[in-house]
Design a protein that fits this description.
Structural class: alpha/beta
Strand content: 15-25%
Number of helices: 11
Number of strands: 10
Radius of gyration: 20 Å
Order of helices and strands: EEEHHEHEHEEEHHHHEHEHH
Distance between the termini: 22 Å
Bound molecules: 5'-O-[(R)-(carboxyoxy)(hydroxy)phosphoryl]adenosine, zinc ion
Length: 343
């Protein structure tokens, strides 16, 4: 079985060809990061237009790397939820057109489930059942993953996503988009204990929720003075920038690792799978590995390139193909947060 997977939910246009043994036969990715950096974040209209330009060349590149034609595929899979509406629509329209042209079945991919499935692709070991932690630019959520396509939501962020907080704090510090890698770099020269930023929700072991907006405000007050909002990013000294980056990063990482451990305990699970762009963070990876040793749970965390958006994680379509879960050609995009991901 050979499936073409397409990803265009945010600012990366990606395609991959995978087989039923999860081998990646071909892959291509066109990143829009340089374009959006000029605006300090993803501009949805620009993202949609860039996807339109990139989508067919990226599909072509993945197919030619796999040395396959459309006719030789068994199905075409595409992310239709969640994400930016205009971005998702470009991938979906392309996938439908290719399905019609080559008379192939269509498979829908949930982007969040795919982030967890990246762990299944990266390791020759089945992580399910497990607790799934998804930490990206748009989502910070915990799931009970009963199987590769059976996800039960446990909780999510009540305000900002972790990646969004990284991006916004980076902007406050005058660091470039995307904020995660910029803060990680700045933090290398900083003291993570310099400022004792809050760890919201961490004391509440029952609620599987995150909150990062208060932490963001705490950083702003540290820079501007309590109750004030104005300061000049240009005037922040290098050491202050590094110390704030390191202390902020430490607080976010403590919340993510702490909540994941609480979820493992609460649901009596001993395996954790982590996915999403923030899972590429070096300090997070270090601390979640330490937690895995300390609390003796099995950890699956894909290499950084498979944590950020890509089409290889769309290999989850293999599982849907095997389960006979095909989509109709009137499939729509579903940009919002998926409350019940068991579909
Ligand atoms: O999963 P992803 O590539 O796209 C979404 O689905 O949102 O995640 C993007 C997010 C951005 O907020 C970015 O700043 C963050 O992941 N990110 C990181 C790192 N690399 C990317 N955050 C912290 N540390 C990193 N090294
Ligand atoms: Zn993502």
């Amino acid at each position: 079985m050979k499936i073409l997977t397409i990803e265009s939910s945010c600012d990366e246009t990606a395609a991959a060809v995978v087989d039923d043994a999860r081998n990646v036969l071909g892959q291509a990715l066109a990143s829009q990061i340089d374009t959006h950096r000029l605006y300090g974040g993803v501009v949805p209209e620009i993202a949609s237009r860039a996807h339109i330009q990139a989508i067919l060349p990226v599909v072509q590149q993945a197919l030619s790397e796999a040395q396959l034609t459309l006719e030789e595929l068994d199905a075409i899979a595409v992310v239709n939820e969640p994400g930016l509406a205009g971005s998702l629509l470009v991938g979906l329209a392309a996938a439908k057109a290719l399905c019609v042209a080559a008379n192939k079945p269509l498979i829908a991919i949930n982007h969040l489930q795919a982030h967890i499935y990246a762990c299944r692709v990266a390791f020759n070991d089945n992580p399910f059942p497990c607790i799934g932690l998804i930490v990206s630019g748009g989502h910070s959520s915990l799931y009970r993953c009963n199987g590769s396509i059976d996800f039960q939501p446990l909780g999510t962020t009540i305000d900002d996503a972790a990646g969004e907080a990284f991006d916004k704090v980076a902007a406050m510090l005058g660091l470039p988009y995307p904020g995660g890698p910029s803060i990680q770099k700045a933090a290398e020269n900083g003291n993570p204990q310099a400022y004792d930023f809050p760890r919201p929700m961490l004391d509440d072991h029952d609620r599987m929720q995150f909150s990062f907006s208060g932490l963001k405000t705490a950083v702003r007050y540290k820079l501007a003075g309590v109750g004030k909002v104005d300061f000049k990013a240009m005037e922040i000294s290098e050491q202050l920038r590094a110390d704030i980056a390191a202390s902020f990063q430490e607080a976010v990482v403590d919340c993510l690792v702490g909540k994941a451990v609480q979820a493992l305990k609460k649901y009596h699970m001993n395996t954790l799978c982590v996915g999403g762009g923030v899972a590429a963070n070096a300090r997070f990876r270090e601390k979640v590995m330490q937690a895995s040793d300390k609390y003796r749970f099995k950890l699956f965390i894909a290499p950084p390139k498979l944590c950020t958006d890509n089409a290889v994680m769309g290999a989850i379509a293999i599982e849907r193909y095997k389960a006979g879960l095909f989509a109709d050609l009137d499939l729509d995009v579903s940009p919002g947060l998926v409350r019940d991901a068991k579909r």
